[in-house]
Q: What sequence folds into this?
């Protein structure tokens, strides 16, 4: 609607950082459920939808729209923007969208380079300067690797934009951001 009203420029693609599921009756936060319909709703309105799954998200892969791309330790290119992503969080692998720390590190290493413009994570770095929650090893990795915009969710931060190394880091938890050239 904002595009139609010319309040914002045309949106070329949408990036999702996970945790799109909530109980249908909204009786509490959390839970795990299928978010295929959410991805597909975005796919009906925009040329491309790219992103990662949060620890509360499940999908039915065969029902995903053709213009959706889930990133998990890999990269893609949309509109000449190199995008990499890692789904889930660190935890017990028998639970939904969980990885060992070693699996997460390997996926993160695969996608962080000077050639990646945008990195999408669900679980992000900590920010000890501003006392904000996250994973210290992600911050430590970003201090010495990449020169990207890093977006993530999972934890809420009071100061959503910081710099780590050569990376701009934006916590998008419960937020919508519109980037323009």
A:
């Amino acid at each position: 609607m904002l595009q139609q009203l010319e309040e914002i420029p045309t949106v070329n693609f949408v990036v999702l950082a996970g945790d799109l599921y909530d109980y249908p009756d909204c009786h509490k936060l959390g839970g795990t459920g299928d978010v295929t319909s959410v991805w597909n709703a975005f796919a009906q309105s925009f040329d491309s939808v790219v992103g990662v799954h949060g620890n509360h998200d499940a999908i039915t892969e065969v029902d995903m729209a053709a213009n959706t791309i889930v990133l998990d330790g890999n990269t893609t290119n949309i509109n000449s923007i190199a995008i990499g992503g890692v789904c889930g969080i660190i935890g017990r692998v028998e639970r939904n969208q969980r990885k060992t720390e070693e699996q997460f590190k390997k996926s993160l290493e695969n996608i962080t380079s000077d050639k990646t413009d945008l990195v999408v994570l669900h679980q992000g770095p900590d920010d000890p300067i501003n006392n904000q929650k996250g994973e210290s090893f992600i911050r430590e990795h970003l201090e010495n690797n990449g020169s990207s915009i890093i977006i993530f969710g999972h934890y809420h931060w009071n100061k959503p934009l910081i710099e780590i190394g050569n990376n701009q880091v934006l916590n998008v938890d419960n937020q919508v951001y519109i980037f323009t050239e």
Remarks:
- Residues 43 and 66 are 8 Å apart (CA to CA).
- The chain has three helices and 13 strands.
- The longest helix spans residues 101-111.
